[in-house]
Design a protein that fits this description.
Layout: H1 8-21, E1 28-31, H2 42-49, E2 55-59, E3 61-62, E4 68-69, H3 75-86, E5 89-90, E6 96-102, E7 105-112, E8 123-124, H4 129-132, E9 134-137, E10 140-143, H5 146-157, H6 176-189, H7 198-204, E11 208-209, E12 212-213, H8 215-221, E13 234-238, E14 256-260, H9 264-277, E15 281-285, E16 292-296, H10 300-313, E17 325-329, E18 333-339, H11 361-371, H12 379-389, E19 396-399, E20 403-409, H13 413-434, E21 439-440, H14 441-448, H15 453-466, E22 470-472, E23 484-487
Parallel strand pairs: 1-2, 13-17
Antiparallel strand pairs: 2-7, 3-4, 5-8, 6-7, 9-10, 11-12, 13-14, 15-16, 17-18, 18-20, 19-20, 21-23, 22-23
Helix pairs in contact: 8-11, 9-10, 10-12, 14-15
Length: 488
C-alpha cells in the first residue's frame, strides 16, 4: 500500500483538533514522548496495520495531562526508535513520519499503513502470532480472538466452512425427495452430470466431501439440522421499546419471542412470517379506484432479503456455530444480526456495488435453488430499493467486530433521532441511580443492554462525565482497567 506523508500544516491541524476534543479515535493514538520514545508501541502498530484505514501515532501530546502539547525529546532519535519497533513486527511496518512545530514545541506523527488482507494479521514477533496480534476498537487496542485469527487464515487459504464434513451426519438423515429434486434440477441445468455416478454427483454438488455429508447439505436438506448444530437457527424477539431491557406496562421484556429452526428455506419463511405477524399494517385506499391495500410497517421484500443474507452468508466456523442469527424488533427499527463480520475484502461502502468474496459458496448455490435467492449480489440493492419505495430511511449496514447487522427504520431520520434522544434522556436517571454504587464499564454496558462498551461510554457515560453528574474513581488514569464510575 502506497502511503504519502501528511503535510506539516495538516499535522498541526490534526494535533489541535485532538487537543480540543481531548480524545483519541479509531485511527489516532497519542503518545507523550517528551522524555523518551515509548517502549511498547507493538499493540498499536499491530491494530493500525490490521484495519483498512491504517492509523496515525501522534507523538508530543500527553493524554494523561489532559491532552496537553508536551513536545518530543528528540525528533530524529524518536523516528529511529519507532522504526526499530516497526521492524520487530511481522510483516515489518513501514511508518511514514512528519514533524511540525506547535505552541513552541516539536511534535511528530507516524502514519501506519494498512497491510494487505492476505498478509494479516500483523503481529509483534516477540509475542508470536496468537498473542501479538491486535485489533483497534474505538480508541483501544484489544488482543485478537481465536476467531479473528482464524478468519484471516481461512481467507488466505480459501477455506470454506460450509464444505466441512459433519462427522455424525449420514445421507439417510437428509430429506430424500428434496435432495432428489435438487439433483434432477442440477442435471437438467448441466447435462454432463448425467454421465456421473451417484457418488460422483454428490461430491460435485458438495453434498458430500470425501464421502461424508457436508455442513451445507445438512443446513439445506437435513430433516432436522439443529440436531447436529443446536444454535444454527434464528432467535427472534419483539421489544416494547427502543433498546434491550425496555419493558411494557406489565413489565414484560418481550412481547413475542420465538426460536426458529429447520433448513435454511424453512427458517427464512418462518422468520418472514414472524416479522409479518409483529408488524403494524396500514390500510391504504386508492383515491381513484377505491381499492384497499394493506401496507406493512416494513417492506416484506427487504426483510426477506436481509434474512436470506444473514443465514446464507453468516460465518459457519466452529467459532460461531454456537451463535444463532438474531432478529430484534424495536418500536422504531428492525435489526437483523448475522454472526461473523464481512468476509474478505468487502467493506460496508462497497456493499451492493463490488463483487464480494463468497464465504459459503456451496451453501449459497444450494440456497439459490431452494429459496429462489439470487446469488448475484442483488440482495443489498433490493433492500435499498424496497425501503426507498416505501418512503422509509435507507437501510443501515454495520460491520461490527464479530457480527454484521442490518438495521431498518420505520420512520424518517429526523423522527428516529428524536426517538433516540428521548430514549437516552429517559435512560440517564436510571443510570445515575445504578451508579450510586461505583460501576465498571462492563457493568454499565450490561445494565444498559448495549452490545459494546465503546458505545455505552460514548453515548451514555461521557455526556454524564462532562456534565459533572458522573465521576471516575481513578481520574488520574482514565483508561485504567480498574476504573469505575459513580454518581456525584
Amino acid at each position: 500500500m502506497e502511503v504519502f506523508a501528511i503535510l506539516s500544516n495538516d499535522l498541526i491541524d490534526l494535533a489541535k483538533s485532538v487537543c480540543e476534543q481531548r480524545a483519541e479515535t479509531q485511527t489516532i493514538e497519542c503518545k507523550a514522548a517528551h522524555n523518551d520514545c515509548p517502549k511498547r508501541l507493538y499493540d498499536t502498530l499491530s491494530s493500525f496495520s490490521n484495519q483498512d484505514s491504517g492509523g496515525i501515532l501522534l507523538f508530543g501530546i500527553d493524554e494523561k495531562s489532559g491532552f496537553q502539547v508536551v513536545g518530543v525529546y528528540d525528533a530524529q532519535d524518536l523516528q529511529k526508535k519507532v522504526t526499530e519497533q516497526c521492524n520487530q513486527m511481522e510483516p515489518p511496518v513501514r511508518a511514514v513520519f512528519t514533524i511540525a512545530e506547535l505552541d513552541g514545541r516539536w511534535i511528530c506523527s507516524a502514519e501506519i499503513p494498512a497491510i494487505d488482507l492476505s498478509e494479516r494479521p500483523c503481529y509483534y514477533r516477540g509475542a508470536g502470532r496468537s498473542k501479538g496480534s491486535y485489533i483497534r476498537v474505538g480508541d483501544a487496542d484489544l488482543p485478537m480472538t481465536d476467531y479473528e485469527l482464524y478468519s484471516y487464515e481461512a481467507f488466505r487459504r480459501h477455506l470454506h466452512d460450509d464444505e466441512r464434513p459433519v462427522k455424525r451426519a449420514t445421507l439417510s438423515m437428509l430429506d430424500a425427495d428434496k435432495l432428489e429434486r435438487y439433483i434432477l434440477q442440477r442435471r437438467a441445468d448441466r447435462p454432463g452430470f448425467a454421465q456421473l455416478s451417484r457418488e460422483q454427483t454428490l461430491e460435485m454438488l458438495n453434498i458430500t466431501h470425501d464421502g461424508e455429508v457436508t455442513l451445507a447439505a445438512v443446513m439445506n436438506f437435513c430433516l432436522y439440522p439443529q440436531g447436529y448444530f443446536p444454535q444454527l437457527g434464528i432467535t427472534a424477539i419483539v421489544v416494547p421499546g427502543t433498546q434491550i431491557g425496555d419493558t411494557d406496562t406489565d413489565s414484560a421484556r418481550f412481547t413475542d419471542n420465538k426460536r426458529i429452526e429447520g433448513t435454511i428455506d424453512t427458517m427464512v419463511e418462518d422468520a418472514v412470517a414472524f416479522c409479518r405477524r409483529n408488524m403494524k399494517v396500514r390500510t391504504i385506499i386508492d383515491p381513484v379506484t377505491g381499492a384497499r391495500n394493506d401496507r406493512t410497517e416494513y417492506p416484506i421484500e427487504a426483510i426477506r432479503e436481509a434474512v436470506l443474507n444473514a443465514v446464507i452468508h453468516r460465518d459457519y466456523s466452529i467459532y460461531t456455530e454456537g451463535t444463532p442469527v438474531q432478529i430484534d424488533f424495536f418500536t422504531n427499527r428492525l435489526e437483523i444480526h448475522s454472526p461473523g463480520s464481512l468476509y474478505g475484502r468487502m467493506t460496508v461502502e462497497q456493499l451492493g456495488i463490488a463483487r464480494p468474496d463468497l464465504r459459503n459458496p456451496a451453501l449459497a448455490v444450494m440456497a439459490e435453488e431452494l429459496t429462489s435467492a439470487e446469488n448475484r449480489y442483488s440482495g443489498i440493492p433490493t433492500i435499498r430499493r424496497a425501503m426507498a419505495e416505501y418512503g422509509l430511511p435507507a437501510p443501515v449496514f454495520e460491520n461490527r467486530r464479530n457480527e454484521f447487522v442490518v438495521i431498518l427504520y420505520n420512520q424518517s431520520p429526523a423522527a428516529a433521532e428524536v426517538t433516540t434522544q428521548r430514549s437516552e434522556k429517559n435512560t440517564k436517571p436510571d443510570l445515575l441511580a445504578f451508579c450510586r454504587t461505583p460501576r465498571s464499564r462492563q457493568e454499565i454496558a450490561n445494565y444498559l443492554g448495549v452490545k459494546t462498551i465503546f458505545y455505552a461510554m460514548g453515548h451514555y457515560v461521557q455526556p454524564l462525565l462532562q456534565s459533572g453528574q458522573l465521576a471516575m474513581t481513578i481520574p488520574e488514569s482514565p483508561k485504567s482497567r480498574k476504573q469505575k464510575f459513580y454518581t456525584v
